Amino acid sequence: MPHVIALFNMSGGVGKSTLTMNLGYHLAADHKKRVLLIDMDPQASLTTFMGLTPFNLENTIYHSLLNKGALPIEKDVLGCDLVPANIFLSQAELKLSSELRREYKLADTLAKETSEYDVILIDCPPSLGLLSVNCLVAASTLLIPIQTEYKSVEATINLLQTTYEIAQEVNPKLKVLGAIPTMYDERTSQARRALETIEEMFLGLQNNPSFKGAVVFPPIPRRTDFANATAEHVPLALYAPRHPALEPLEVITRAMVKGL
Ligand SMILES: Nc1ncnc2c1ncn2[C@@H]1O[C@H](COP(=O)(O)OP(=O)(O)O)[C@@H](O)[C@H]1O
Ligand SMILES: [Mg+2]
Q1: What is the per-residue pLDDT across 67-121, written as a single tens digit (0 to 9) for each?
Q2: CATH number, domain at 59?
Q3: 83 lies in which domain range?
Q4: Among 54, 49, 53, 39, which residue's Cα sits nearest to residue 6?
Q5: How many domains are contained in the chain?
Q6: How many CB atoms lie within 10 A of CB 50?
Q7: What is the value of pTM for the model shown?
Q8: Which residues line ligand 1 (CB under 6 A)?
Q9: Residue 128: other Cβ atoms inside 10 A
Q10: Which of 10, 46, 131, 139 could potentially form a cystine with 6 if both were Cys, beta carbons 3.0 to 4.6 Å apart?
Q11: What pLDDT digit, counting tens, does each position of 202-241 carry?
Q12: How far is the CA of 207 from the centre of ligand 2 (A)?
């Protein structure tokens, strides 16, 4: 069975989709893992970043969740396979809300046709609604990207509590692999303080069973090359093969491989 890892944070714009694309690429290209990426965000950033046009897609994750249709897998996009999303997914919250096992739709879907993969990465929506809960129930491991600015570190305190509650109630096996500080601007004291706060918080969570062993990964620097690369529908490694920001990505990828 594949190892299911969700990139989760209830805030938008913290780098979830960018990380999903880049980590997926490194898992496939550097570690020869068979990788399936799942776009669970109605905004479909991951689908767009990977070079597909969401609006044109007839079959998306929505159809598998709602109609129990086969997973619409786009094969070999940048070395990974991809289950795309589009804006129709925004209707799923409402439609699923009256269904039995509504929290288990994604888990049930992934249990069926994914045995050929080593790892599944889920790009979560920026919310705490039913779509997010589905991601947390389907996953066994969480990576939590946290933007290194004061505002989002505050929000993270809520996120961690909510995650813990969900983990306890619905999916006791869920473990946090670590936090990924993102958009780190090493020149500002605000960013450095935010990073310290993240490290302190994670240290404080070590006696919480869901967070035991969770680490704070080296920060992903704020670099426009990330946005430039996605604009060209490639990961940073293909856009700028010797970019210094590849190093933290490789550290995180190795930790993911170790846990497989
Ligand atoms: N490390 C980074 N440095 C600079 N810009 C980034 C970085 N990571 C992501 N971005 C840009 O920030 C925006 C939001 O990133 P995205 O991955 O879509 O976040 P999320 O999925 O959490 O909403 C995108 O335009 C993306 O290109
Ligand atoms: Mg996103």
Answers
A1: 888 999 999 999 999 999 999 999 999 999 999 999 999 999 999 889 999 999 9
A2: 3.40.50.300
A3: 3-258
A4: 39
A5: 1
A6: 25
A7: 0.96
A8: 12-18, 45, 126, 182-183, 220, 222-224, 226-227, 230
A9: 17
A10: 139
A11: 888 888 887 889 999 999 999 999 999 999 999 999 999 9
A12: 30
